[in-house]
Automatic annotation (TrEMBL):
One of the GO BP terms on file: proteolysis
Alphabetized UniProt keyword annotations: Hydrolase, Protease, Serine protease, Signal
Similarity comment text for this entry: Belongs to the peptidase S8 family.
Any one Pfam family match given in the protein's UniProt record, by short name: Peptidase_S8
Keyword Transit peptide: no
Cross-referenced InterPro entries: Peptidase_S8/S53_dom, Peptidase_S8/S53_dom_sf, Peptidase_S8_Ser-AS, Peptidase_S8_subtilisin-rel, Peptidases_S8_3, SBT, Subtilisin-like_FN3
Organism annotation: Oryza sativa subsp. japonica
Alphabetized GO MF terms: serine-type endopeptidase activity
Domain Peptidase S8/S53: 64-425
CDD domains documented for this protein: PA_subtilisin_like, Peptidases_S8_3
Protein name (record): Os04g0120300 protein
Record domain Subtilisin-like protease fibronectin type-III: where: 492-589
Amino acid sequence: MICITPESPSFADDGYGPPPSKWKGVCQVGPSFKAKSCNRKLIGARWYIDDDTLRSMSKDEILSPRDVVGHGTHTASTAGGNIIHNASILGLAAGTVRGGAPRARVAMYKTCWNGVGCSAAGQLKAIDDAIHDGVDILSLSLGGPFEDPGTLHVVAKGIPVVYSAGNDGPIAQTVENSSPWLLTVAAATMDRSFPVVITLGNNDKFVAQSFAISGKTSSQFGEIQFYEREDAENIHNTVKGKIVFCFFGTKFDSERDYYNITKATSEKGGIGVILPKYNTDTLLGDTLLTLPIPLVAVDYEITYRIYQYIKENDGTPKVKISLTQTTIGKVSAPKVAAFSSRGPSYIYPGVLKPDIAAPGVTVLAAAPKAFMDAGIPYRFDSGTSMSCPHVSGIIAVLKSLHPQWSPAALKSAIMTTALTYDNNGMPIQANGKVPKIADPFDYGAGVVNPNMAADPGLIYDIEPSDYFKFFNCMGGLGSADNCTTVKGSLADLNLPSIAIPNLRTFQATTRTVTNVGQANARYKAFLYTPAGVEMTVDPPVLVFSKEKKVQSFKVTIKATGRPIQGDYSFGSLVWHDGGIHWVRIPIAVRITDIDAPRVSVIATAQTSYDNATTYDNNRMPVRNIPKVADPFDYGAGFINPNMAADLGLIYDIAASNYLKFFNCIGGLATGDNCTTAKRSLADLNLPSIAIPNLKTF
């Protein structure tokens, strides 16, 4: 639904035959887009504009399917671009680029315009044209605060609709495109990284991620110029030949004007910038490559170590920045991107969203013509716009393998086979200002696992007409359908997930599964129960045969605590056949007192350090909204004064013992300054253990 660069090698038609006989699309011409711009790969292109958009759009826009920004080109090549070897951007991320379905045909419908955004009327018309033209999948890397009408009409025609989840994370309740018939995609990192090594004059080394390429860094030591102010206007001419280091004190949460600081440093003759940033998910992109000198973002621990070095250095503090390397498999991945919008849906709390996560951080894909003219045919971009076409391409492959599957069945296969563990076998984490273990409001069912999705074992299917039982659909299944209000509880809608936003006592919900694997199969239920509830499944075993391919079961969820206004807890239900099939659906439950207003709850305080409570007044894990709290949130837990009076054992430390571990200028005198550690603090007799760099044991 955006635009395209037809000259990109990702859309060349070498080796392609004529378009499918069912294809009825057109190649709508315009400036910089002739009829020959379409080919046997890019088989259709249309554009839509209204008078208001025409008056308000950017002056560099072109009234044709031509892409002037790069968004549509990037996403289209991610979904269905050709296999291109020896691709990179300025030598970074070198390798082979390909779309999720590299032999798929591509058709583009331009409804979004630079400087204005997307036309709702144009989008409706484009969707209708796409159905008429004969598309098999709609991939929509766009969104807004409200649901788009007309999409159920597409699904009723057997066409899956894949949307991006939005880029307003890590804030809760920001997920977009949450209608249950849509496949809504969150963004995650991948195991490719771009490390640089920062070396101080004392030979301390730190690893960060940035783009420091040949010609922009000398990899030689340079003097450090220290700034405690964050404005580009404060950069002085004295930075010439130096590397600027910024430490902004206690303002940890502010987003800095990193790019203007770096440009100002370069204009004054500086050769690099190092500054703090809690997360780099949005930093590693094309803009970083346009900067004339390296900009390296580091976490606050490294920031403080550099600050200490500067303050304690008797001579001239120096630092050097290495060239960037491209590495694969050296970082924990995937992780949910910090910017990826989070659930629950404020429009449909009874629909668990997002549905799935896919790669969406520093994705290399096709570039617009302006980049190509500069010798850069492929570029980086990040966002749920980038994760959406990954899933669209996978859906295209699955649809070719299983042409009889409905959009709901395809969605089920994607969700029930998703990954919840990273490449180290650890639970997937969610990046943010407070990193945490990911939950279904971060990534839905998990991160997409295309190989397993081809053989899911069981599917949760939904007929389009079933939605009428749960939604008031003005226009029915027509092209102007508008199904934005629910009739009642969505608990029994046969989704591959369960969300119960207001559980007071108990809730029973029914699901139906269809066996698409081996005809004779026996599946056993495994329950991972959310905290604060009891959960049962009836029957606990499903037996399938050639004659009996469809089975229903009932899930009953019962609150075990008293009915107060609580927060969500998470679990899952897995059906396992004893072989390769683990058919998993996520579950989100919030216990509530429906007679009480919705309020935020602060847990009652309770801890002695070693008798601290980690549970709230409903015996639920203490939460740092929107996650279960951990020791970096509350230390040992909430204070419990009664237990602290009789704790049994204590961990004691004599004041002089600290001198064994710290360099204390002034000793124990009134002017003592113990700000640097001599060695590991692991043996300091604290009532806690922190090991920040465990290599073996």
